[in-house]
Amino acid sequence: MEKTLDLFEPGEKGVVKSVAGEGKIKRRLFDMGITPGADVYMRKKAPLGDPIEITIRGYELTLRKTEAVCVNLEVVK
């Protein structure tokens, strides 16, 4: 099942399938290591859903909801 990163709940895992977005946002996500094939673990989500904290490539990363919407993942059980 595929969904965007902003819809993940704490404890869920996934694999990045694609990164949408234009220009600066897409480049910024790639620079942070969010590339197709990367494993992602949702660590925390703020009460209103922004920001979120994930673990990717062995480090913790905090993203805004507007960035997380651009990341499509395949859910791993």
Helix content: 10-25%
Question: What integer is the average pLDDT?
Answer: 93
- Strand proportion, as a percent range, falls in 35-45%
Global outline: globular
Order of helix and strand elements from N to C terminus: EEHEEEHE
Tally of DSSP β-strands: 6
End-to-end Cα distance, whole Å, is 10 Å
Which residue ranges are poorly predicted, with pLDDT under 50 across at least 5 consecutive positions?
none
Explain this structure to me?
The chain is an alpha+beta fold and 77 residues long. It has 2 helices and 6 strands, in the order ββαβββαβ. It has helices at residues 23-31, 65-68; strands at residues 2-4, 13-19, 39-45, 52-56, 59-63, 71-76. It has a 6-stranded antiparallel beta sheet with strand order 1-6-2-3-4-5. The mean pLDDT is 93.
Task: Write a concise synopsis of the structure shown.
Helix content is 17%, strand content 43%.
